[in-house]
Every structure is written in structure tokens, then in C-alpha cells.
Amino acid sequence: MSQPLEILNKYWGFQTFRPMQDEIVDSVLAGHDTLALLPTGGGKSVCFQVPALCKEGLCLVVSPLIALMRDQVEQLRAKGIRAEALYSGMSRRQIDTILDNCRFGDVKFLYVSPERLKTELFLARSEDMNISLLAIDEAHCISQWGYDFRPPYLEIAEFRQRLPEGVPVIALTATATEEVQSDIMERLEFRGKNAFRKSFARDNLSYSVRVTDDKEGKLVEILKKVPGTAVVYARTRKRCQDIAQWLRRQGIQADYYHAGLHPDSRATKQEDWIKNRCRVIVATNAFGMGIDKPDVRVVAHLDIPDTPEAYYQEAGRAGRDGKKAFAVIIIDENDPKKAIERIEKNFPTLNEMRHVYQCLANHYKLAIGSGEFNSFDFDLPNFSKKYGLNPLLAYNSVKKLAEEGYFELSESFHEPSKVNIKVDNRRLYEFRLFSSDYDAIIQALLRFYGGELFGNYKRISESNLATALETSPDTVAKILRTLQQMEILDYDERKDMPQLTYLESRHNASNLPIDVKRYEERKELIIGKAQAMADYTTNDKECRTRQLLAYFGEEYERCGVCDVCVSEKKISTEKLKQIRHDILLLLRSGQREAKNLHDALPTSVDIATFAEIVREMAEDGQVRLEDGMVTAMGK
């Protein structure tokens, strides 16, 4: 078995682990079930990737987010580590090929959504996989007390029972209250409680709330005061675009980012920001997932985040380099009330959800009992218009039905086309001899993408093939579809739309078995979290860091750098000046006993603070303190 530091240095180029990473890695390698709580940017992935590379066999990673799966797979491949991912929108044959490679190939990491664990195909193939570690990312999703509970996560414990005895599980999350931590370990059937938790405190991060009736003006003021890269979060796509344009008019280099942009545009904007060619990115809250940019100096929110967990993660994208950074929420006086009302509207009635469920079945032409694990493009505006639905109601209904485990809904993402040649070399050669019309494109495929097309799905570009063949991308796609119909290859066309995947066969909408009690409990819980976030923005008496950490069950005195603490310091400085002035004024009449002097002060101050002030004045040469008596110098 390889040594952890050797692996860390070989693939990541680091000589040492970050604080607590080594303890977590050692725990996993010792075969212990392990819960790792590390703040955003704390290096959670290393905590399971290093021990997995130390061990023989496959690491199965359960993750709820397609974007994070794809990012981590790409990062591992860039290091020369074989990794695959299964997610909604893939063809049955593509899934089949990946699972076979995990059984018989050299795949080291397989990323799957929790829904995948209960499919017959996966369960059958996993029996032949040499799984040595089970990693659960975003583990708070397993707890009904978490802010992003997903019922399919409850299936993980049942799947775990299929693994050989002794295969450890590592659960990872950036945010979890004490209640959620206990729930995670219980639901994953930990063999003994074993949690590693790094403090949620970020000494270099200054939290603040600014109340104003001119949000744009306050944002510009902050960005002009604090140089460096910034992320500005806004709730809607149009708002992102408008704010970016406003900032540019104020002379601040800015751009906008949201899931509705063309994939190439999103990639360019993200790269420009990462490479500091763009200073400020104005984005919806999906931006930043999986992006490790250390030098962000400001994270600003123009709307109150839905939960303290979400805010902690988003704000935590600032100052990962350890240098001073700022997280600020800019609100008007009505925003806290509007935030609660917005969350309440996110919960449709049961009849509204059943109606939307029926409309989806009609839209995709699904009969009762069909559709399990079928994926479809989900065009919300078109769907809403077709069935006369309020788009927000339709979206919230689909989201809640997804949370109940009926669907998996991915946000819009770009998935390039892929090709896999289904026949062997001999059969392909024969086909080319007798089907010369297709020889040119097959030759181009082999020249561009090589022999790996026979064993794996390779990403292709219709545009590049079209250029080589002096034709159009549409013509290339048409030929590839024909070759697929002839069963020469499998052509998985590009996807740019959100994907809606049915996780269960279609139900009769009128009898849709929604867990009403759990739904109401979730509603109450989420509204409570929204209230906690609203309270955070209105409480200007208690240290911001202390407020956030108390929510996560961590005791903390005060940070000294948030807006509340800084305000207190300013008051203390003014008060200190006044007390010093009063002391010298009282001493004009001559020497006084310290206690008598304290009692005579017109400005209220406790005895300990008074004693410290007198000591400092003595060190400055303003007074002399001797035998409990205080004398002004020169008197």
C-alpha cells in the first residue's frame, strides 16, 4: 500500500497536508467510518481521493451534483487518474460500457448519483467491482434536518450492506449542525461515532450587512474600497446581466454568468474571471461550485440567501488564500420580510404538484407504470406555456417532486457529443469495403479520436469533423445518426438543456404518494432556516461570526473584524478618549485614591477596564500610580 504523503506529492505536488486532512486520511486507511466536516475550500476531496489511491480497488463516490461530479472527474483525469461518472441523460449503452470498465478495467474512481445505487443494472454490476472505499459527498443530503435533504440518500445504508465487510465509508460536507452530524452517522450506520470537524471560524474573513435603499450604489462603493477579484450573487438571470452592465458603466470591469448562457460563453466568462481578465463576476448562486480560486477578496449578496448553510458556503469562496477578505450582504429594510415570503411561495400545494406531475406525463407521453430512469430535456418556458402554468409554480413543483425522490433535475449543463464504435475491427473493415459512402467519416473519426472509440465513449466535435470533411455539422450529425441506426456505432448527441430523469415509474397523478407529514415538516424546517438568515441580517448587536458559528453549534467569542465588532471598537475608542480626559480633569485638584477616582468618573466604566486605562496612562507618562494613589504628572 502506498504512503499518503507519497500520493499527495505525486498527484497534487504538495509536501504536507492541510490541517486535519492527515488525521482524516489516517482514519480512513485504518478502516474507520469517518465523518469529515471541512469548510468550503478546505480540501474535502483530498480526504477520500488520497486514501483511495493508497488502496487497491475502486472508490465509489456518491454525489448529488452533476457539475461537481464532472469537475472532479476532469481534475482526476488531468492528473492521469482514471475516473468515470454516471448521471442523468446518459444512454443505456454508455452506462453499460462505463460499468464494464469499472469491473474489468483500471478505473479508480466512479462517481454516481444516489439514485443510481438502487437500479437493477448497477446493483448487478457492482457485485463484480472491487470496491475498497465508499465516499459520500455533500453528506448533509442524507439528513431530513439538513437544508438539502434528498430521500434517495437514505438508500445508501442498504447498498452498503452489499459491500464486503470492512469496507469503510467516508462522509464529507462543508456545513452541518450538530443534529445533522449525528443523523449522518446514524443513517449511514457508522461502526462507532467518528467525526473530524474543523472550526467554521474564518479569521481572515470579515462578515458584514449593509442596509440601504441604493444597493447598486453601495455595491460600487464597496468594490471601489476593496481592490481585487469579486463575486456578486443575484437571484435572477436578468438581475445578473443588469448589475454587470451597471458596474461597467461605473468603470468597474464586470461580467455576468448564469445557466441560461451558451456553454461556450459560460466557459469563456468563467475562465476570464479565474485568470483575472475580468475582475467581478455577477452570477446566480450555482456559480462557484467546484471552482477553487484562492484570491477572491469580496463576495457580495444582493439578496438574502435562503439558509445559513448556503450563505456560509457562498461567502466562504472569499479569502481562501488566507488573506483579508470580505463577505457582505446588501439589503433594504424590507428584504428580511420578503425573504420569508419568498420561501413560503417555494412550497406549492399538494394539488398543484399533482397537476404539474400530470402535465409532465402528458408532455413526455408517458403511460402509467413506464418511464423509470428515462431522461428528457426540460424546457421550463416552453412547458409552462404549453400547459398554461405559472413558470415559478411549475419550477417549484418540479423541484419539490425531485426532493421527494420522483425526479432528478439537473441544472442546464453542456454535455458534448460522444461516440462508441459497437463493432470490432474486422466487422468495421468489412462495413467500409461495402459501404463506401460512410468510409470518409469513419476514417475521420479514427484519425481524430483513435482506437479508444472501440472500448469507450469518446467526446467528439461535429464541427471539427465537418471541417475535415468539408461539409456542415448538421450533415455530420445526420450521418452519425444513420450509422447508429445501422448499429455500427452509438452516437450520444450533445445536450445543452436541463435534464429531467424519472427515478420511479410514472404514477397515477391523483394517487401520487407524497409523504404529506414529511413535506410539511420540511416546509417548517426550511422556513425556520430562512428566518435564521433573516435574523442574521437584522441582528447588529452580536458578532456576525459568532452568530453563524452558534447556528452550527460552535462557541465563539468575537471575531473583531465584522461590521458589528468594528462598530463596537469605534465606540470604545471614543469612550476611551472621554475617560482619559475625565481622569485628567479630576486630577487637576490633586492626587486621588484610585477607587475614589473611579467612583467620581462621570462616564460609566467597570473597575477592571478603569485599572487598565490608568495603567496605560502611566506607561504614556500622563499619570503616576503609586500605592493605590493616582497623580497627574507635572502636578
TrEMBL record:
Pfam families: DEAD, Helicase_C, RecQ_Zn_bind
Enzyme class: isomerase
Protein keywords: ATP-binding, DNA-binding, Helicase, Hydrolase, Isomerase, Metal-binding, Nucleotide-binding
GO terms for cellular component: bacterial nucleoid; cytoplasm; replisome
Catalyzed reactions: Couples ATP hydrolysis with the unwinding of duplex DNA by translocating in the 3'-5' direction
Listed SUPFAM superfamilies: P-loop containing nucleoside triphosphate hydrolases
InterPro entries xref list: DEAD/DEAH_box_helicase_dom (IPR011545), DNA_helicase_ATP-dep_RecQ (IPR004589), Helicase_ATP-bd (IPR014001), Helicase_C-like (IPR001650), P-loop_NTPase (IPR027417), RecQ_Zn-bd (IPR032284), WH-like_DNA-bd_sf (IPR036388)
Domain Helicase ATP-binding: 25-194
A Gene Ontology molecular function term of the record: hydrolase activity
Residue stretches making up the Helicase C-terminal domain: 218-368
EC number from the UniProt entry: 5.6.2.4
Similarity remark: Belongs to the helicase family. RecQ subfamily.
Protein's recorded name: ATP-dependent DNA helicase RecQ
UniProt organism field: Fulvitalea axinellae
